[in-house]
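Z., the sequence and structure:
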Amino acid sequence: MQEDNYTRIDKNGMSEAQQYEFSPNPEGGTVVLTKRKNGRWVRQGESMKHGTAFAIGYRSRYYDYSF
């Protein structure tokens, strides 16, 4: 999986209602995923139960202004 470029496209300021436009980034960071027997896609080398799960075919971005 490879990181995309993203641009925020809404005009909501420091809001939770955020919209982004995504485009491919050929130089973006990559992560190797493996599909586990429970059906989850998890980073290679992480545990099935406690590893970071990824959704294939779905893009999202969120910035939390409270931190």
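The CA atoms of residues 14 and 65 lie 6 Å apart. Strands lie at 5-8, 20-23, 33-35, 41-43, 53-54.

Let me know what you think.
H.
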